[in-house]
Design goal:
With about 250 residues, the protein is of the alpha+beta class. Among the domains are: about 5-75, no CATH class; about 95-135; about 145-185, no CATH class. The chain has helices spanning about 45-90, 100-135, 195-200, 205-210, 215-220; strands at about 5, 10-15, 25, 30-35, 150, 155-160, 225-230, 245-250. Helix 3 (about 195-200) crosses helix 4 (about 205-210). The longest helix has about 45 residues, at about 45-90.
């Protein structure tokens, strides 16, 4: 015998007592879909064909959903990127507390330091890899010779390639790097006092001690001959002692 049963679409169909209508829950549709969704299922028509039909329909809807979602996702990503960029550019002026901005600056500085460290480590790794493999260019030694020419004005020892272009091919080249061809003249250094000259040039134990501790002696004597206008009224009141000099500071030595 056959009995009639109502279908959710308002239509009726004749099905066997041995067959039952079970709802198939599909999350994408958010509702229950019954087999068959429409029309009458003949006894010769298998349930798998109806399932395949609905499955194809669901796949088509999912493809359409992906087709719509992809550009929306791209727009959302672009909007997020623009938002982040604006916050980076105008973050100091809008809606970012000072403490948060300082923390962001610290993190950015730390990130930059890490990137530099990674870059240096990669360079060292590549350098060692090239050294181990031997696959690096060999640069030939280029000998430029010895500085065998002397400036006729100041007596500086120079290379011929350092001479002026006008005199480079002549037998007596002239040089401009040392004294601008005699235009710059430095007076000879004055000889130090006899005692200081003895400490600098003698081979005695006192001279050797002086040369070994010359920086200390220079620091000790740094303010012994200072000249300037001392402000003595600044220490008349209360407070710590202050050494104040006004005007030009000079040494009397």
């Amino acid at each position: 015998m056959h009995r009639r049963r109502s279908i959710p679409h308002g239509k009726s169909s004749t099905i066997s007592n041995n067959e039952s209508i079970r709802p198939l829950k599909i999350e994408w549709y958010k509702r229950a879909v019954f087999f068959p969704p429409e029309g009458v299922v003949d006894s010769n028509q298998s349930l798998s064909e109806a399932q395949n039909k609905i499955s194809d329909e669901i796949d088509a809807h999912k493809c359409e959903l992906r087709r719509i979602t992809q550009p929306l996702t791209k727009l959302a990503r672009r909007k997020r990127a623009l938002y982040i960029r604006q916050r980076r550019i105008y973050g100091r002026m809008v809606n970012i507390p000072t403490g948060l901005q300082n923390e962001m600056d610290k993190l950015q500085s730390k990130r930059n330091r890490l990137l530099r460290s990674i870059k240096l480590a990669e360079n060292r790794y590549n350098h060692l890899r090239l050294m181990r493999s031997g696959d690096f260019p060999v640069v030939e030694v280029f000998d430029i010779g010895k500085p065998s020419y002397k400036c006729v004005y100041c007596g500086a020892i120079m290379w011929k390639e350092e001479s002026t272009k006008a005199t480079r091919n002549s037998n007596e080249p002239k040089f401009s790097l040392c004294c601008r061809q005699g235009k710059v003249k430095l007076p000879p250094r004055r000889q130090p006092p006899e005692v200081l000259n003895m400490l600098l040039q003698a081979n005695t134990s006192m001279a050797r001690h002086f040369l070994e501790h010359i920086r200390g002696y220079n620091a000790v004597l740094a303010f012994t001959s200072i000249g300037g206008k001392l402000d003595r009224s600044i220490n008349n009141g209360r407070g710590v002692y202050v050494y104040s000099i006004g005007g030009q500071v000079y040494h009397r030595i």
